[in-house]
């Protein structure tokens, strides 16, 4: 909560600084041009904020969570799209009002005669395309790799937009303080991306040198992959977190898949457990021992770091049991584990859960059956865990199951700070 509030406060403070420098620079005579310049400035500020959101900085990720950062990234992206569209429209109509040109011809004329405007038009076109493929309708019909490749063009748009600001911006050329501020904001944002997306992953992989040591089928469609490397006791991974894994084979080196750790890090070995849900996860069964692994992470705030109570409830659905199993190994205090599956055969890692629960003095409930009737309804949860409102609740599973359980927890008056969950999606 503190990190989220702090990030909002930083954005609000910078918005106020932008407004101050904008006022200090003076206003154009045309109200449309004034609005155009202001929306352009706020669009550029949102672009810098967006870079921080997609930088995958460990400090933010551990405290806020990748799913929330991804949600902010999505809405910030639409904010960028609308502010920059507003910038283009207001500027075109504003300058057209004092010339003999219509707005479209005015925009073309500006692109041909004013340095940096053509670059801004190209940047806006790229952002419109990225915004279009980020809508739910298009996103569901695109492969992740295709969507991600198109998204990479956003960085081209960022560079073009920034050079446009430098070339024709008046607000931040009005004083040396304003210029230093603008370069400072963008320098910090670009450095965040460079460090979080390039330097840190390269450094950690060079240091740890991960390789596959074993591939163990858990069922017909679930497999566990064990990895070892150097100095794993110094890797800042916690139970409940996930990595982006690249297995450096000839046909899969370019494909990264997010999988949670299915065992708490012990300083010697890392383990992931994955269900065959696509070509990437299905291919894990055929990875050879000795294969080099490039891992980006660890990511996620689904850890014991955010506990507020001495006792806990861990609720897993399907293969969502993997981070829950890791958390059970690490978590202290009495815990109740509820594992929801369709049939007993779907209960991956159940033997490990049972042995861990027995060793730690925890309760374990295996809940089987079809989705309807809801076997994790408020009454059933209260029956299994009568004091659930006094415990931390950690939840991981398929989205429909998670949504149903979150509704049950609300009905049982479990305070929001005690509910911990993460939808494993990536920002940028």
Describe what this molecule looks like in 3D.
It is found in: Membrane. InterPro entries: FAD-bd_FR_type, Fe3_Rdtase_TM_dom, FNR_nucleotide-bd, MRET, OxRdtase_FAD/NAD-bd, Riboflavin_synthase-like_b-brl. Residues 205-305 form the FAD-binding FR-type domain. This is Oxidoreductase. The protein is α/β, with parallel strands linked by helices and 428 residues long. 52% of the residues lie in helices and 15% in strands. The protein contains 14 helices and eleven strands. It has helices spanning 2-25, 31-54, 58-64, 66-96, 103-113, 117-134, 136-139, 144-168, 176-208, 279-282, 321-330, 350-360, 378-384, 399-411; strands spanning 211-217, 222-228, 242-247, 257-260, 269-275, 293-299, 312-317, 335-341, 363-368, 392-396, 419-421. A five-stranded parallel beta sheet has the order 9-8-7-10-11, with helices on both faces. Strands 1-2-5 form a three-stranded antiparallel beta sheet, with no helix packed on it. The longest helix is centred in the middle third of the chain and has 33 residues, at 176-208. The mean pLDDT is 88.
Short recap of the structure:
With 428 residues, this protein is an alpha/beta fold. It has helices spanning 2-25, 31-54, 58-64, 66-96, 103-113, 117-134, 136-139, 144-168, 176-208, 279-282, 321-330, 350-360, 378-384, 399-411, and strands at 211-217, 222-228, 242-247, 257-260, 269-275, 293-299, 312-317, 335-341, 363-368, 392-396, 419-421. The strands form three sheets. It has a five-stranded parallel beta sheet, with helices on both faces. The chain has a three-stranded antiparallel beta sheet with strand order 1-2-5, with no helix packed on it.
């Amino acid at each position: 909560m503190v990190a989220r509030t702090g990030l909002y406060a930083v954005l609000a403070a910078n918005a106020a600084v932008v407004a101050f420098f904008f006022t200090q620079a003076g206003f154009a005579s045309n109200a449309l041009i004034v609005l155009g310049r202001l929306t352009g400035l706020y669009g550029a500020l949102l672009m810098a904020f967006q870079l921080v959101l997609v930088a995958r900085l460990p400090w933010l990720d551990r405290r806020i969570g990748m799913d929330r950062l991804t949600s902010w990234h999505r809405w910030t992206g639409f904010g960028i799209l609308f502010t920059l569209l507003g910038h283009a429209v207001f500027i075109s109509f504003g300058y057209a009002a004092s010339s003999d040109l219509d707005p479209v011809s005015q925009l073309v004329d500006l692109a041909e005669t004013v340095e940096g405007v053509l670059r801004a038009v190209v940047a806006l076109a790229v952002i419109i395309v990225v915004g279009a493929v980020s809508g739910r309708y298009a996103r569901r019909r695109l492969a992740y790799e295709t969507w991600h490749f198109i998204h990479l063009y956003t960085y081209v748009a960022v560079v073009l937009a920034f050079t446009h600001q430098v070339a024709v911006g008046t607000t931040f050329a009005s004083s040396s303080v304003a210029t230093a501020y603008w370069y400072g904001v963008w320098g910090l944002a670009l450095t965040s991306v460079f460090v979080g997306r390039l330097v840190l992953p390269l450094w950690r992989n060079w240091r740890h040198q991960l390789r596959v040591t074993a591939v163990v089928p858990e069922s017909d469609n679930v497999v566990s992959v064990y990895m070892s490397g150097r100095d794993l006791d110094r890797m800042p991974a916690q139970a409940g977190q996930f990595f982006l894994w690249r297995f450096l084979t000839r046909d899969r080196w370019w494909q990264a898949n997010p999988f949670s750790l299915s065992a708490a890090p012990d300083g010697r070995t890392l383990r992931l457990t994955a269900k065959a849900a696509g070509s990437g996860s299905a291919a894990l069964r055929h990875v050879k021992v000795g294969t080099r692994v490039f891992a980006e992470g660890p990511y996620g705030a689904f850890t014991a770091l955010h506990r507020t109570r001495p006792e806990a409830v861990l609720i897993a659905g399907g293969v969502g049991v993997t981070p829950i199993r890791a958390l059970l190994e690490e978590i202290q205090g009495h815990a109740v584990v509820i594992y929801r599956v369709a049939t007993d055969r779907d209960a991956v890692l159940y033997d490990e859960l049972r042995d861990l629960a027995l060793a730690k003095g925890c309760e374990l409930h295996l809940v089987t059956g079809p989705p309807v009737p809801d076997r994790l309804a408020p009454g059933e949860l209260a029956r299994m865990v009568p004091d659930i409102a006094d415990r931390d609740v950690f939840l991981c599973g398929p989205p429909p199951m998670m949504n149903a359980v979150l509704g049950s927890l609300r009905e049982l008056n479990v305070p929001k700070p005690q509910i911990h969950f993460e939808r494993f999606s990536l920002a940028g």
